[in-house]
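SEVERITY: medium
COMPONENT: batch folding queue
REPORTER: lab tech (J.R.)

DESCRIPTION
The queue accepted two submissions in a row. Attaching both inputs and their returned structure tokens so the on-call engineer can compare them side by side.

ATTACHMENT 1
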Amino acid sequence: MIKEIRKSRWMALALTAAMVVTASGVATPAQAAPKKLTIGFVVHVIGNPFINQIIEAAKMAAKDLNVTIKVTGPAGAEGDAQLTAVQNMAASGVDGIATSVPAASMVNGLNAIIKAGTPIVQFNGLGVGVNAPYVGEKSVESGRLLGKMVLDKIGGKSAKGDVIVGNCYPGFPVLENRQKGVLESLKKAPGVKIVGPSDVKVDSAANFAAWQGLLAANPKALAMVGLCAPDVESIGKVNAAVPGSKTIGGGYDLTTGNLAALANGTAHISLGQTPFLQGYLPVYVLVDSIRSKTKINFSGFLNSGTEIVTPTSVIEPFKSAPLTFKQLQAMSASNKLTRAYYDKLVKTYVKDWRKNLAPIAEESA
């Protein structure tokens, strides 16, 4: 008899635990724990040091938000291969996908994935016409700034001589925009002759060889200006191999190799595009919109900002804390230092992404 009473009480407790009383007083089955989200993250070049900075930031976001992240992409920047990687991610059942868009040929395929119900956020490479927000720099304005800084270093509007311009991926919309801005600034000096823009390749070895050949063909060049992540490091090595070279080197991104070239004086200017935000923010936007059941099937621009770095000066966007060049070098080699430095932005700019979403036209204004 006692056993039967105990059994009856246990069954009652189990039934109670499996029920939830709603506001109306009606008991319903308890909800299962929410599914852990999986986010696909597709880059256009696996193994590139700058892209690795973006990937590491995306992983930080996944850890902070308690989601699974799957990273993939082609070995070289090739639009069709990248679209296939995104399509495979969608077919595997991920909850959302962040991807760069290096080719216009990807646009229709990405929109088909979005229409089928998988949200997408773009980063670093903008696909004009993709129905998804984009995280990246103001590309034309960034080019204008780099061009002006180089021009100031070689004599301003009175400068006379050759300036070599290299583009590692002709046709990539963001790089074409940078190029437009650089040329716009350089052309303010009537005496400057633009050599190029030449295809200097994205592979690091091919990139170095391309710059080496360009300087050999134009040994009196006033400056070499690159538009891609490998360029500053390559330009520095090329300058270092020419005794007494006074050619100014300028370009993009704050990889450890690029910063080393600035530190040893073989290169002179590098603009960053805040890879932390380009990795962290797309994951955050996807997870936040999925959890809040908010559709993001529309274009929009989230500015990742421009970092302005010389061997003697570091200017970070969004009124971030001041950094010395040595602190920036240490941060470029440490995920822990990077995450700590950008914590304020995570709690403000990232968290308030809806307020900061601008029309896509502002990317190339």
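ATTACHMENT 2
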Amino acid sequence: MPTTFRRYQPDQSLLLPPSPRDWLSEDHLAYFISETVDAFDLSAFYERYEGDGRRNQPFDPRMMIKVTLYGYATGIRSSRKLAKKLEEDVAFRVLASENFPAHRTICDFRHDHLKELRDLFVQVVQLAREAGLVKLGTVAVDGSKVKANASRHKSMTYKQMQKQEKRLVQEIDRLLAEADQIDAHEDELYGPDQRGDELPEGLRRREDRLRAIQEAKKRLEARQAEADRNKGRRPGDGRKSPRGGPRFKREFGLPEDKAQDNFTDPQSRIMKTKRGFGQCYNAQLAVDEESYLIVATGMTQNGADNGELLGLVETIESVTGQRPDKLLADAGYKSEANFRALEEAQIDGYISLGREGKAPPQPPGRNRPASQRMKQKLNSSEGRAVYRSRKGIAEPVVGWIKNILGFREFSFRGVEKVSAEWDLVCLAINLRRLHRLGVVV
């Protein structure tokens, strides 16, 4: 008996047009994002289009937001890839509803509305709070180094800048001298009224390079001057210590020879990561234990985490209207000032005093009473049990962002835009989590 196959007629036209709503399952992430965006207050997105009399009809911001958020939630951030998905991917076509914005339009929309997209993060957290998902009983904070949109090979140390500046000045002087000689020679040949004053080939490139190096030097010197002021130093002090201690190795505002600045993204910094040193930003987040939702974010150019703890606590309160009962963090956030601030805010903190797998830290001295109290708390069986739960709260969320969304490098440059994009990424992972929890918008 011959085998019969299921009907397959690729050239057969449909008698009735199919509904795109039938192409995806009812519980698909695309529908959840669409319904959630419809529940948002999007007035800020529409303000820039009000009464400007443009002839060409712009794409509806609501559609553009859905496409952008679904792209981030599925690990697709490239505007070119998003434009291609709008033609090939069923979920994107359902969200766009037969709109096909070009990649430049997608890129411009994201760039122009980065602040408004960032503000949607707050709306999602508040929505989850109203739904009773965010309890803030226990919150864990963590930081993760994320690669900047810049190569560390585009960096230069202060010492190298000084050498290159000197070399370029000499080359430019030589080229200008050659130009003067050529001008004089051509004046003799063609007369003084004929052109012969063009810059030699390569002079403009050298001048541009010199200008970039000089600007980078100024940034390093300004950064060092700010650091010196924080130490109590003042211009004109020379190398003298303001507290009568040993003399400083450098004059006020003079960077170390090894201090670096990046030409592509000057606001990024060289940071140590698990894969070695790289040009990065230090992205921060706070995660609610009950729901695994991100309730606060932060961004810093500093590789150290301890200066970000109190800022995250303030952000949690401003977003949710409530402080967490317990706060968990690794040793990167330890400091006497942080411990005292948590006690004053009546937040039960559990912050390690030493890195795991390394030699135990020295006992805090008498001049650090808050650190002593933290050590006593963590040495108790209850304290160890509470702190042990930290790994299962914040670290998985960082893993979801980097491995499920594939977010390991920023698309934007500059700390403000990078911070906004981090909020957008955290918004995307929160939407995925709410969808998994079966939240009805």
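NOTES FROM REPORTER
The first strand starts at residue 138 and ends at 147.
No errors were logged for either attachment.
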